[in-house]
Amino acid sequence: MRSPGTRRATALAVALFVFGFGQELWFRFLPAYLRTLGCTAFGIGAFGALKDLLDAAYAYPGGVVSDRLGTRRALLLFGALSAAGFTILFLWSSVTAVFASLFFVMAWASLGLPATFSLVGEELQGDRRVVGFTVQAVLKRIPIVLAPPLGGLLLERYGMTNGIRIGVGISIVLSIAMLAGLARALPSSRPDASRTTRQAVHLRPALKQLLVADCFIRLCEGLPDVFLVVWAIEVVRVSPAQFGVLISVLMATAIASYVPAAALAGRSEKKPFVLLTYAFFTLFPVAVLASRTFGHLLIAYAIGGLREIGEPARKALIVDLSEPSARGRSVGLYYSIRGFAVAGAAAIGGALWTIRPSLTFVVAAALGVLGTLWAALYLPSHGRLMEDHR
Q1: How much is the pTM?
Q2: Residue 38, by phi and psi: left (phi above 0), alpha (psi -120 to 50) or beta?
Q3: Does CATH place domain 4-184+204-389 in 1.20.1250.20?
Q4: pLDDT tens across 11-52, in order?
């Protein structure tokens, strides 16, 4: 029989699945949608930069709200805000609508991130945290395997504008279902009074070293991220449906790597899995740049999927090294600092793209090398991590 804590963690994972399926039908196609609406490469870069900036700006306030209101009410609030963003995008088809809706759409993923970490951290202890983050990650990514090909078919059949609108409409329906289910599954509870939001939050030394490496790696990811669909469709000349298949390959590879990696990471050092993840982050832009056919891209996106191999271990490490009495704010502070550090990545990627598209991928790979080396040199081993934790 499952414990109440396991049931709550499962309810959260199912919510991530339902919400993610609807959004993944269309969200990754937004750069191509913006292109259809007449947006320049700089404008697409600005869209990616705004997405990263909101990711940064929302993380810490999300942690404060989570600690103050409690996980249940915080998640319901953030889900409702995202649903409002979907509605804007459904009713209004323009570049302005895409940018305006992003302020709301990002609420679930960014404001809600500290709350999801807090829930797993509260309900699962020790090695079960790695398993918990693995289950959560798998159920969050299965929609990314299934939805983008379906979204690509919608775009091919109904056109870019109508296809996006249909996908967003499905998101609205699924988000309402998710909020109703989450309201029933998570019990009402008052936040822990010991979690005062006036107390200063500090990151432990080991967590700071992980944060520095993470910033380099997320810059590596962020420079080409919004241009991946443009590269695939305009340079390699694949169809929207084929690009959806690429996303499915990427996520299927990630899912396949999670379970064995999480099992090993739960019993041994987490650092090697973090380094392996960073190495694949570095290789992915190189593999995409070298691709000239759909078959080449399939290999590149399989490499991209392996970027997730150490993600459950990395997330468990963040929770392990966060202050238990202020976990929401600790996680929020970590992701807020990281987010602000990489917020301009897409804009830089757009500027490099206007000079030469290949520069975006080359500079990204160089930043990945720096992040991997930083983690290898400065992230402490398991024994030293535990000393730092104490």
Answers
A1: 0.71
A2: left
A3: yes
A4: 767 777 888 888 888 888 898 899 889 888 888 888 888 888
